[in-house]
Amino acid sequence: MKLTILGCHSATPRTNTNPTSQVLEIKNHMFLIDCGEGTQVELRRNKIKFSRIKHIFISHLHGDHYFGLIGLVSTFRLLTRETELHIYGPKGIKEVITLQLKLSDSWTNFPLIFHELTSKESELIFEDDKVEVYTIPLKHRIYTNGFLFKEKENERKLDINAVLNANIDKAYYRKLKQGADVINEDGKLIKNISVTQDPIPSKSYAYCSDTVYHEPIIPIIKNATILYHESTFLDKNESLCERTKHSTARQAAIMAKKANVKTLILGHFSTRYNGYDEFKSEAQKEFENVLLAQDGKCFEF
Questions:
Q1: Where does residue 47 fall: left (phi above 0), alpha (psi -120 to 50 degrees), or beta otherwise?
Q2: Most buried among 22, 53, 260, 263, by the most CB within 10 A?
Q3: Within 13 Å and on the Cβ side, how many CA atoms surround 206?
Q4: Is 64 an annotated catalytic residue?
Q5: Of 101, 130, 133, whose CA–CA distance to 28 is shortest?
Q6: 163-171: long-range contacts (C-beta < 8 A, 24 or more apart)?
């Protein structure tokens, strides 16, 4: 599982900071999460192939999270893309993008499929044989979702020596990996646990931006491998959180602790601050395993 931060700052782009966007590579998928202004430039800078992006997840319709989307869609068109592009986001995302395509007479030459979200409860919005994606209902100034990306349980590993000694036909190897007991060539029932090993633990990534401190999401993100949680402010500016519906680094750390996640990544920093080390130190007073997002930084787990 690899996470590439294309942008991790709030509000407006600067010469050295980009608004929110990131790419998650998981089980051969490349998911684009939010698409702030300048996203396609950062995709090129980080040498990420445009053609591998087939699913885009937009958390909410504030500009620093989706103003780069129409530009990226237009570039896909200029690159003569043919494969489907799925966009998941709040109701209204289809209208705002298709209106721009209509007025510029720039309809795509590839299928552009919108999945508009309205539920205030967590829901499954994508699934295949390897990955599930759920919404995380957040509390912001407008309708907002985070996203939980979960690997499905991995197959069990064959203990090949035990399998051979048990005289099991190769035709049953697939069933063994799926956890089934099988009959060997002598007609004897072989218990799965005697010839396989536990699978590699599946991983999960919870993306939470933007939101005020909001404990109702804890059951959804419980035990996540990685939690990315917005930390727009430091403690000294906590008074701004309720008005703007954002969080502090300390509040993000409390959320990580209560959800029992393995690692917390802080991001969505306000550009009012000159440096970000203080975000980490404040968070670590509540939760030890803290990392800082940075434009262009990759995390592999």
A1: left
A2: 22
A3: 27
A4: yes
A5: 130
A6: 163/195, 166/190, 166/194, 166/195, 168/195
Alpha helices in the chain (DSSP H): 39-45, 69-78, 93-103, 160-165, 173-177, 218-221, 239-244, 249-259, 277-283
**102 Cβ partners below 8 Å, 6+ apart?**
none
pLDDT digits (tens, 9 = 90+) for 13-22: 998 999 999 9
Burial of 177 (0-12, 13-18, 19+ CB in 10 A): middle
pLDDT tens string 158-209: 999 999 999 999 999 999 999 999 999 999 999 999 999 998 899 999 999 9
Token pair, residue 276, equals: 């970000």
CA–CA distance, 34 with 253 (Å, rounded to integer): 22
Query: What pTM was computed for the model?
Result: 0.93
Distance CA 143, CA 123 (A): 15
Per the CB < 8 A criterion, the answer to whether 58 and 73 are in contact is no
Measured over the CA atoms of residue 95, residue 101, residue 107 and residue 113, the dihedral's sign is negative
Name every residue whose Cβ is closer than 8 Å to that of residue 1 and which is 6 or more positions away in sequence: 24, 25, 26, 151, 203, 205, 225, 226, 300, 301
CA angle 90, 92, 96 (to 5 degrees): 125
Q: What are residue 31's phi and psi, to 5 degrees?
A: -95, 130
At 152, the amino acid letter reads: K
Task: Give the separation between CA 259 and CA 136, rounded to whole angstroms.
Answer: 13
Q: Which of 34, 64, 210, 295 is catalytic?
A: 64
Q: What angle do CA 221, 6, 287 make, to 5 degrees?
A: 40
Q: If you search the block for the tokens 């130190």, which residue do you land on?
A: 281
